[in-house]
Write a structure and sequence with these properties.
Blueprint (H helix, E strand, L loop, with lengths): L1 H22 L6 H4 L18 H25 L1 H29 L15 H6 L1
Helix pairs in contact: 3-4
């Protein structure tokens, strides 16, 4: 009986693909084959530069996200871990807090924009 389901699982998609191929008609045109972006045709370059601060926040989020998944085994078995498990958890959390304080002191979470001044080309300096 189980092998019947396996055969049907292999045959049924094949039948549907064959029916789709036989029934469907080919009517492609430029708009249908072109890129789709929010329902509008892209007349200019749609990719623009954005602030690196967003990527920085995402990268800094990863260690703290991994922290949550690292704490989960202790939370699940908190009653059977004992003093050793608790001390390892405290050491782990302390190291993460120290790393977070270090990031704050470095200014890694400072999201204000920093603009670099326009530098004159080298040729203009030669004529001055």
């Amino acid at each position: 009986m189980f092998t019947m389901y396996i055969y049907m699982a292999l045959v049924t998609p094949g039948i549907f693909i064959l029916l789709n191929y036989l029934i469907s008609n080919e009517n492609s045109y430029i708009e249908k084959n072109g890129p789709f972006e929010c329902g509008f045709t892209s007349y200019q370059q749609s990719r623009s530069a954005f602030s690196v601060a967003f990527m920085l926040v995402a990268i800094l989020f990863l260690p703290f996200d991994l922290e949550m998944s690292s704490i989960l085994p202790y939370v699940v078995s908190a009653y059977s871990n004992g003093l050793y498990g608790l001390s390892m958890l405290v050491i782990f959390l302390t190291s993460l807090v120290i790393a977070f304080v270090y990031e704050i002191n470095l200014g890694a979470l400072n999201l204000e924009r920093r603009f670099t001044p326009m530098v004159k080309p080298l040729m203009n300096k030669l004529y001055i």
